[in-house]
Amino acid sequence: MYESLLNQNSLFGEFERLRRELDDAFGVSALPSSIRSVAAGSLPAINIGRTPTSVEVYAFAPGLDASKVEVTLDRGVLRISGERPSALPQAERGKVNVYSRERSAGRFSRAVALPDDVDPAHVVANYKDGVLQISIARREAAQPKRITVQ
What is the number of other CB atoms lying within 10 angstroms of the CB of residue 25? Predict the structure, then answer.
């Protein structure tokens, strides 16, 4: 998979962790931390990368029923949506005081704009061990070609 730009052991990684903890403690819905980010707590968390032949998307969504996750690709926008059930049984909701909630429940949807060179006819999605891997092939014309020098 792809390495994070914010190493958890770095000084900036520690500041980011502290910011998230303060946001959680005060119930603040954090704004995106950079222009390419989404608000903290957006589900599912995703990594995106490119190989010479494909664009790879990894969505981290443990505890989901794969048959209830919807993946669509329309006009260069990949959308992942579904619903995560609550960990509390229906009978217990309202009776339990929740002091900390790190795993959210409910409907979610993420949209990702893909590069122009993806081929929407060749998309494969697999869900295993809580990770949804979506592989979108790049068009043949966009793939690197080796040119022989004469």
Answer: 9
Order of strands across the sheet that contains 106-113 = 70-74, 77-84, 106-113
Full-model pTM: 0.64
Query: How many C-beta atoms surround the C-beta of residue 139 within 10 A?
Result: 13
Confidence of residue 9 (pLDDT cuts 50, 70, 90): low
The stretches of the chain forming alpha helices (DSSP H) are: 11-26
Give Cβ neighbours of residue 138 (< 8 Å, ≥ 6 apart).
50, 52, 53, 54, 55, 115, 117, 118, 119
Structure tokens at 44: 């599912």
pLDDT digits (tens, 9 = 90+) for 20-32: 777 777 765 555 5
Long-range contacts of the stretch 60-68 (C-beta < 8 A, 24+): 60/130, 60/131, 60/132, 61/127, 61/130, 61/131, 61/132, 62/129, 62/130, 62/131, 63/103, 63/130, 64/127, 64/130, 64/132, 66/127, 66/132
Q: Is 26 helix (H, G, I), strand (E, B) or coil?
A: helix
Residues in the chain: 150
